[in-house]
Amino acid sequence: MGPRWKGKGSEAKALANPISNSISDLQSSLLKSNSQGILSGCSVLLATNPQQTELLNQTCFGRPIITVDKHKQWFQFTLEEAFYLCFSLSCMKIVDGDHILKSNDELWEYMVSKQPYFINSFKAYSHLRVKNWVVRSGCQYGVDFVAYRHHPSLVHSEYGVLVFSDGNANNRLRVWSDFQCTLRLCGSVAKTLLILHVNRNGENGIGSCSSPSCLDRFSVDERTITRWSPERCREDQQCLCKS
Length: 243
Hints:
This protein has helices at 10-16, 19-32, 50-59, 79-88, 104-114, 118-130, 176-188, and strands at 36-40, 43-48, 63-65, 73-78, 93-95, 134-137, 145-148, 159-165, 192-199, 219-225. The chain is an alpha+beta fold. A hairpin with a 7-residue loop joins strand 3 (63-65) and strand 4 (73-78). Helix 2 packs antiparallel against helix 3 and helix 4 (79-88) packs across helix 6. The longest helix has 14 residues, at 19-32. The mean pLDDT is 88.
């Protein structure tokens, strides 16, 4: 199943403005302004100028926050989004509530403490982002993420993404009925279920994941799961393969 475009001309717009180009422009803009996000619970807040607001909307990082100040825009990032901008793209710094700059190791420790499965979810998130997929929360579909080939205003998401790791700590899809429910839900909204299995390759001991450097030793396996449709091989249809 290919992309499901939203309206005439959407494909041409997407091809004319690749997400990768917009991300490069965003990276450059944030670096020039020495942007600093502020830790706020399980999210990060960033004040942006008009150019950055446009680029963040184009690249689908964060969500704009409506405030009474019309001259200053704020964006709210998930922990995965914020750490990707800070650690992977190295274009944003993050401070705490007292405006003390946090190192990557300190941020890592903070985010892991706030979100139990942060290590796996970030590895999966960055795995898709590096491949220029647009990644958004999938909570409304009962999955971890949804992945878009281009900007969500131009195309519908193609994949509902579930993240697993060694030992399946999330305790999901352990019985067949769980698979059936998830597959039916994804099918009803025209999405393919994508399983991203994060292989820690033995890095499970105490202290082995105490810094983001452990991510280099992880790998990700991709698997898509679809329902079998009986109509694919009915007696009243001509079989392509004959015994």
